[in-house]
Amino acid sequence: MSAIDKGWITIHRKLQNHWLWQEKPFSIGQAWIDILLECNHEENEISIKNNVFIVKRGESLNSLKTWAKRWGWNVSATRRFLKKLQKAKNIDTVSETVTTRLTVCNYDIYQTRRNANETQMKRKRNASETQVTPDNNDNNETMITKRTYSASTKKFTKPIKTELDDYCKKMKYGVNTERFLSHYTSNGWKVGKNPMKSWEAALKTWHLKNLEDRGETFKKQREVKYYVYFCYHCNNNIYKKELGNYRCEKNDCQVETRGSVEDNNYEEIGAKLHHTDTIYKEIS
Considering 104, 156, 188, 252, which has the largest number of Cβ atoms within 10 A of its Cβ? Predict the structure, then answer.
């Protein structure tokens, strides 16, 4: 019996719209589940900054800044977390032209497919069990499977502006729906050279593209590396560009800090170098 057969639950992507889920910052466990929810469950084609990408099952295209914004983290913490997952062989990342391709290793462990070669006897037994003792979990799983199947085979219908506006409001997308509608109406509702399959997916791509474009404003900024001192007397962080001896900047504290990582007698001096971090500062 595989690990997946020993006990698991299906998690609907609607979870991402719940106010409890949207509370930030995310925990690392919440961020990991968010990665699983964000990955494609089937191959799809998306456009980012006029570049068309094929996103396979178990993959996602998001920049580091986009992940950081989703989780309410800074970019440095996001980078460290993804490297930790990569080291544990949970994910793999590849830099693309304007984004990063993230692949979940062994994605089928978390998102299984029904066995196409299931025997007729087992199918009959499952049908019989469903009729005699309808289990809620089985029914829920069946309903989800049917909805997913019908959604993937339904005919594409062009959206109207109010429909786009309502969806953007629901998903909290910052998209100019009038421009979106005008663009795809003029190109015959195509993504790249292929007919559009889902306007919801295209709208999400535009939202992510907007986030990427907003990241261009960081070109007017530079990364400034700070040494972060932590005062154990008042729990205050002190940010300095250079190593050295400093005093806590809180008026009621004024404990002296030391600028050496090896200096471990912080109980005597009150504070010590805690870690380094990268902060964005405007170029003057």
Answer: 104
**Euclidean distance between CA atoms 124 and 197, whole angstroms:** 34
Question: Would 155 be classed as within a structural domain?
Answer: no
Same domain for 100 and 41, yes or no, is yes
The pTM assigned to this predicted structure is 0.42
Within a domain: 105 = yes
Domain co-membership, 177 together with 82:
no
78: which 2 tokens? 């996001």
Residues 88 and 105 in one domain: yes
Owning domain of residue 17 = 3-110
Task: Give 87: exposed, middle or buried? Use CB within 10 Å, 0-12, 13-18, 19+.
Answer: exposed
Q: What is the pLDDT of residues 140-151, one digit of tens each?
A: 443 434 444 444
Query: CA angle 255-256-257, nearest 5°?
Result: 120
Structural domains counted in the chain:
4
In a domain? residue 116:
no
Same domain, 60 and 103: yes
Residues 257 and 275 in one domain: yes
